[in-house]
Write a structure and sequence with these properties.
Length: 673
């Protein structure tokens, strides 16, 4: 759909009491209590500061005007365009013929012009899925893209958010001209070429494709599946929710206010290729069923099963259930997979305490503190996000202090102030006065990311989806979906043996549940092990690398094993860490006992425990590889299939070698590495 083009934007002066009070006598002239509309560098702009009262003629002055603006003293007119971005305070003075004056300060935000930073497109392979995120900086969000010259390959489409997707047909080079607009109509163009090559071919002179896209959405689907509250036409709400999610094509969703599990399962059934679960799903979530009842609002996740793998899920911060309004956050450890590469990301999905009373605000304030403590302590160096319905804004609170009559400061100021470690992808939209709900102008549905994940954020990609559904507010939800895009590229921190890391070391086999010590009923915990394999062509010094289970990775216990300096794993060889010294075979040089006193893996859900996750972490605390499991069988290890493949799936060892339960340090067929 073509975009409406705008040559410029004139300021709209909204009569709001949001500016500072003017100074002067009541008999003299009075400047208007107005709020200046923001603008973008280079766009036409005009604002009038017409005073009331006073003895004419009136004379106006301003100090200082932004660079590039003109100010007309006889009529109080500010005229652009400006040529410098920033947040400006304009002090306007009006004086009448009797010498009486009035002074008022006005805030004016000027956004930088949008600029396209994408300077090339990776080639598409005919018949294969293609996805690439265009990148632009500057401008007032949301930025929107359009094709204004040339033609895309057959089968490839460009979304307004700047994502090229589809399956290209035919071969050849396609010169195209793309234009990006900001919310004010400021635009930038770029000329690119999109080449389509045949299967197995490489484009001439083409650079390797470092793209690793990830799209993330959060959405409160109001009282979803509850016949007594929210939209009262349940089949219509289901159909609308399915249409919104299918059209958006987002990789991972954090959802809130889901009441009916049956309705949620019906939604999944209508979305081929998607999987997901709610916080009370005891088969997939630790502790969830204890804190979420079947008939209450629940948080949950929905994701593309060919892109997102869930390693582990649990409900966290249970001791602070009250501050979260009875809805403690759901933590989900994810592995994002594209081809043979993968990156690990942790998501927390939340639904904060609602309403605007002082107690409601105080509980959100406390909950924000608990979340930050949790992230600081347990995910200090991980790519992590917190998404959902925060029920408050990040610039100023929606709640009013009854003692002052003024709005409280944002309950999430602790995150805003720690900008070196955390960013709200939604903050720019909030500050631009855009709302995230269908009935209010406040922005209460947010996405927070750690600085490690922010490094892959596509600038200005966060947008509020406003579905073209008649009666949306009454038949779908009172909240709009929020979407952000990331390009994790070659940043590493994830998949074993991928372009994202120089190392080719990965977890190939591990044993979580052991046989008993002979003649006893006590498990021989020393026999637990993790086997690593080096698929590279050079030796790797594992000094400073670590092994974790889920508890130690979250910071609740000590690291299970730290490799001492000089621990070498040779190319094509294995190295085994056993839980205790009695299991280490005598005379071997490629095995050791865990330095932390044990590996402490949990038994499986099928035998009354919770399952666990094995992490291999590099010295910089980024995850090299991990493997999560739900069920266990006594004595039977999990092994890559095919054996020795960094991208192999996980299967019980007995599926690869009948009657053989495990083979630490050796291949599944008994041969040496």
């Amino acid at each position: 759909m073509p975009f409406c083009r705008m040559a410029g934007m004139l300021a709209v002066l909204t009569l709001l009491c949001a500016c500072s009070e003017g100074r002067g006598t009541s008999e003299g002239p009075r400047l208007p209590a107005v709020e200046l509309s923001p603008t973008t560098v280079g766009l036409a702009y005009e604002a009038m500061f017409t005073a009331s009262g006073g003895e004419p003629p009136l004379r106006y002055t301003v100090s200082p005007p932004p660079q590039g603006f003109s100010f007309y003293t006889g009529e109080g007119r500010l005229q652009g365009p400006g040529n410098e971005a920033g947040d400006f305070a304009l002090t306007v003075t009006v004086r009448d013929a009797d010498g009486l004056e009035n002074v008022r300060t006005y805030a004016l935000k000027i956004y930088p012009r949008p600029e396209v930073t994408t300077d090339g497109l990776p080639a598409a392979t005919a018949g294969d899925s293609y996805e690439h995120v265009l990148v632009a900086t500057g401008g007032r969000p949301p930025l929107q893209w359009e094709l204004v010259g040339g033609s895309l390959p057959t089968g490839i489409a460009l979304s307004a958010a700047g994502v090229l997707t589809g399956q290209a047909q035919g071969e050849g080079n396609h010169p195209i001209t793309l234009r990006v607009h900001d919310a004010h109509g400021a635009e930038a163009e770029v000329q690119l070429g999109l080449e389509v090559v045949g299967p197995g071919q490489t484009p001439d002179g083409g650079a390797p494709d470092g793209s690793f896209p990830l799209s993330v959405g959060n959405w409160n689907i109001e009282w979803f599946g509850d016949p007594d509250y929210g939209p009262n036409d349940e089949p219509l709400q289901l159909a609308n929710a399915q249409a919104v999610i299918a059209d958006a094509g987002v990789d991972f969703w954090g959802l809130a206010e889901i009441v009916s599990t049956a309705q949620f399962d019906a939604l999944k059934a209508r979305l081929p290729g998607y999987d997901g679960f709610l916080a009370d799903d005891g088969s997939r979530v630790s502790s969830g069923s204890s804190y979420y009842a079947a008939n209450e609002q629940k948080v949950g996740v929905l994701f593309k099963s060919d892109v997102v793998q869930v390693l582990r899920a649990e409900v966290v911060l249970l001791d602070h259930d009250y501050d979260f309004g009875g809805r403690p956050p759901l933590r989900v450890d994810l592995r994002i997979q594209r081809g043979g590469a993968s990156v690990d990301v942790t998501a927390l999905v939340l639904h904060m305490k609602a309403l605007t009373g002082p107690d409601d605000y105080a509980r959100r304030l406390s909950a924000s503190g608990w979340i930050k403590d949790y992230l600081d302590l347990r995910l200090p160096t991980q790519r992590a996000m917190v998404v959902g319905d925060w029920n408050d804004d990040v610039d100023v609170s929606i709640a009013t202090n009854p003692n002052t009559g003024l709005k409280y400061e944002s309950p999430f100021r602790n995150f805003v102030n720690d900008s070196a470690s955390y960013k709200f992808t939604t903050q720019a939209l909030s500050e631009a006065g855009i709302g995230s709900t269908a009935s209010r102008s406040t922005f209460i549905d947010h996405q927070l990311v750690t600085n490690e994940l922010w490094a892959g954020y596509v600038p200005n990609s966060t947008q509020v989806l406003r579905p073209n559904i008649t009666g949306y507010r009454n038949n779908t939800s009172d909240h709009y979906p929020i979407i952000s895009r990331f390009n994790l590229g070659n940043a590493g921190g994830g998949g074993p043996g991928t372009g994202g890391t120089q190392y080719k070391v990965f977890i190939n086999e591990y044993l979580p549940q052991t046989h008993d010590i002979p003649g006893t009923t006590t498990p021989d915990y020393d026999q637990q092990f993790v086997e690593l394999v080096n698929a590279g062509t050079t030796a790797v010094d594992l000094g400073g690398w670590k092994l974790h289970d889920a508890n130690s990775y979250a910071g609740e216990d000590d690291t299970r094993h730290v490799f001492p300096a000089g621990t070498m794993i040779q190319p094509g060889k294995s190295y085994v860490v056993y839980s205790g010294p009695t299991a280490v075979p005598g005379g071997v040089t490629n095995a050791t006992a865990a330095s932390g006193g044990g590996l402490y893996f949990n038994r499986g859900v099928n035998v009354g425990s919770s399952g666990d996750t094995v992490y291999l972490v590099r010295p910089d605390n980024s995850v090299q590889d991990s493997a999560g499991y739900q069920d266990t069988t006594v004595g039977v290890s999990y092994n890559r299939s095919p054996d020795g493949s960094a991208t192999g799936s996980w299967v019980p060892h007995t599926q690869l070698s009948a009657g053989v339960e495990a083979s630490p340090g050796r291949r599944v067929n008994g041969a040496g590495f």
